[in-house]
Amino acid sequence: MISIVDYGMGNLQSVMKALASTGTETKLITTPEEVATAEKLVLPGVGAFGDAMEHLNAQRMVPALRDYANTGRPMLGICLGMQLFFDKSEEDSDISGLGIFSGVVTRFPRDLGLKVPHMGWNTLKVSPQSQLLAGLGENPYVYFVHSYYVAPTEPAVTAATTSYGMDFVSAVERGSVSGVQFHPEKSQTVGLRILRNFANLK
Questions:
Q1: Global pTM?
Q2: 188-200 and 12-21 helices cross at what angle (nearest 10)?
Q3: Are 4 and 27 in contact (CB under 8 A)?
Q4: Which of 19, 119, 122, 171 could form a disulfide with 24 if both were Cys (CB 3.0 to 4.6 A apart)?
Q5: Catalytic annotation on 183?
């Protein structure tokens, strides 16, 4: 059973539908007590960093999510959900994130002339040590929609990078906790393989 955190900021139905297509049972959860007892946990997210943290704080989720990350049970952040795993974001610099990973969330540089948000299909350069991204083949394509990216202070947590005018970290992984900047639920066969990998983590 995979529990999906419903805090009013995620594309929940798409995530649930994609997980269901892998044969995985899911449920939505809205309380810290449900977080604490989840077997596996997904934190999705679409929107602004500050708004998301305000919602999580209002639902008293923040301590429970931080505690869950230390249990050894599988935890996945998707898009904004992954960004919330970090200390803070340039988008709302006065608001603290979950601090599960050390580092900041930063905007694509304006001086590169990039179209922002970064939207559409792009490839991953996957770390061979990644459990979440195992078996995807060489340079798999996934679907992105984002204006900010994570900058971990620990290079070892990088599970994948992507090139968009510059190389940026597009997935992180440490033990049972992982995050992806792209949307696996919109990434067709590759995305379903990633979700199946997550469902199979112990």
A1: 0.95
A2: 80
A3: yes
A4: 19
A5: yes
79 is catalytic: yes
3-state secondary structure of 122: strand
Q: Which tokens in the block code for residue 175?
A: 């033990």
Distance linking the first and last C-alpha atoms of the chain: 12
Catalytic residue among 55, 79, 118, 146: 79
Please determine, for residue 88, whether its predicted confidence score (pLDDT) is greater than 90: yes
Nearest to 104, CA basis, from 161, 157, 150, 51: 150
Mean pLDDT, rounded, for 41-63: 96
Contact 145, 183 (CB under 8 A): yes
Q: Residue 45: name the closest of 91, 18, 82 by CA.
A: 82
CA distance 199 to 3: 11
Q: For tokens 């992984």, name the residue.
A: 173
CA distance 129 to 10: 29
